[in-house]
Structures are given as structure tokens and as C-alpha cells.
Write a structure and sequence with these properties.
The structure holds 2 protein chains of 2 kinds.
Chain A lengths: L4 E3 L2 E4 L5 E6 L6 E7 L6 E7 L2 E5 L7 E4 L6 E5 L8 E8 L9 E2 L3 E5 L1
Parallel strand pairs in A: 2-11
Antiparallel strand pairs in A: 1-3, 3-8, 4-5, 4-9, 5-6, 7-8, 9-10, 9-11
Chain B lengths: L3 E3 L4 E4 L4 E7 L6 E7 L6 E6 L3 E5 L2 E6 L4 E6 L8 E8 L5 E2 L3 E6 L1
Classes of the chains: A mainly beta, B mainly beta.
Chain lengths: 115, 109
């Protein structure tokens, strides 16, 4: 079983540009999560999907952020009109979502730098 | 605001010693508790999960949970230099995972 994969691993963009990240979860994992992590902090929850349904979004999530999981498999996270404060590691995780236990496994992350 | 608190460290222990990492949480409804290890520049790696009061052992790692005290800990026996990393405590209840800021562990050879 391959792990969670994310693409790209690094992204440098100029302020005001749009960026899109992709996450491929562990196969047959129903739940997919997006987190953001900055230096010295733990990962901060952004949003999650159960299959193709987006079930929860953080109240801290700006409306410049949007996520999709159209077929219940891979997911994309788009940030519009990027700002320097968006610079962070964006992490994707997946979990089985069944059986009462929800162990989440993380991908390698996408490091975003906004100039 | 649901919170997870950890001592940021660094916690320094000699090679072969027991490292003890602690975490407290604010949400009494929390049901699932996890420890992740994160090396510098890498993503978090799940090392332990615990769901009921008591101890859970896996190799050199032991997780301890006390829901009455809202406290979870991780013990690492026979610490090795390769254990040097940041250890993140994560708690889940009726909300998605909430992470602490992590404790940086340094194992000195």
C-alpha cells in the first residue's frame, strides 16, 4: 500500500497569484484532511472530506481557500490571491474513516513560499 | 477554543535513558489521542494511538492516558539519537484533530 502523496513538494509564487495543490490519499481511505503548519506550530486543521463530501471547514479558513474531492479519491486545495501570510507547509492526511478509529497518516507536504 | 498544551522543550536526555513527554488537553469530550513524531523539514509520522485510560505499549514506546486528569503522555525507553525530533500530541473528539505545538526532544550520544 503506497502512502499519501502530495504534489508539488515545493511551490514559490508571487503575491496575488493563485496556486493549487494536489493530494492522493492511501487507497480505500474514505477520509481526507488538509492542514497548514507554520514554523514552531503544530498542524492546524483546514478542512476534511468523507468520500466526496466536504464535511467541515475551519472557521479560520479564508474564503480565498477552496478544496475539492470530486470523485472521492484525490483532492485539490486552491489558494486564490495568495498573500505572504499564506507561506506555510500544507499537509494532507487520510484515514480509513470506518471502524471507530481514525488514525490519520500524513503525506510529505507542500511547502509554499509567497514572495 | 479547544486546546492541547505541550512543553516546547527542548528536552535533553542521554542515550539509553527514558524520555517522558507530556500533554494536557482542554476538551473533556475528547475520545482519541495520538502521538506523532516530526523530524525537521518532514511531515508528522504517527507513532502511537490510545483510546482508553491506562497504558499502551508498542516496542520502546508507551502511551499513557488519564481522562480524569485530561492528561496523556509518551514514554520512550532506551532513547536513541535517532529519536531526536519534535513530538506532537494530537487529540480528537467531536472536532477534528487538534495538535499541540510539540515538544522538541534531543537525545545526546
Amino acid at each position: 500500500d503506497t502512502g499519501v502523496s502530495q504534489d508539488p513538494r515545493h511551490k514559490i509564487t508571487k503575491r496575488g497569484q493563485n496556486v493549487t495543490f494536489r493530494c492522493d490519499p492511501i487507497s480505500e481511505h474514505n477520509r481526507l484532511y488538509w492542514y497548514r503548519q507554520t514554523l514552531g506550530q503544530g498542524p492546524e486543521f483546514l478542512t476534511y472530506f468523507q468520500n466526496e463530501a466536504q464535511l467541515e471547514k475551519s472557521r479560520l479558513l479564508s474564503d480565498r481557500f477552496s478544496a475539492e474531492r470530486p470523485k472521492g479519491s484525490f483532492s485539490t486545495l486552491e489558494i486564490q490571491r495568495t498573500e505572504q501570510g499564506d507561506s506555510a507547509m500544507y499537509l494532507c492526511a487520510s484515514s480509513p474513516g470506518t471502524g471507530g478509529y481514525n488514525e490519520q497518516f500524513f503525506g510529505p507536504g507542500t511547502r509554499l513560499t509567497v514572495l | 477554543q479547544k486546546e492541547v498544551e505541550q512543553n516546547s522543550g527542548p528536552l535533553s536526555v542521554p542515550e539509553g535513558a527514558i524520555a517522558s513527554l507530556n500533554c494536557t488537553y482542554s476538551d473533556r469530550g475528547s475520545q482519541s489521542f495520538f502521538w506523532y513524531r516530526q523530524y525537521s523539514g518532514k511531515s508528522p509520522e504517527l507513532i502511537m494511538s490510545i483510546y482508553s485510560n491506562g497504558d499502551k505499549e508498542d516496542g520502546r514506546f508507551t502511551a499513557q492516558l488519564n481522562k480524569a486528569s485530561q492528561y496523556v503522555s509518551l514514554l520512550i525507553r532506551d532513547s536513541q539519537p535517532s529519536d531526536s525530533a519534535t513530538y506532537l500530541c494530537a487529540v480528537e473528539g467531536n472536532t477534528p484533530l487538534v495538535f499541540g505545538k510539540g515538544t522538541r526532544l534531543s537525545v545526546i550520544a
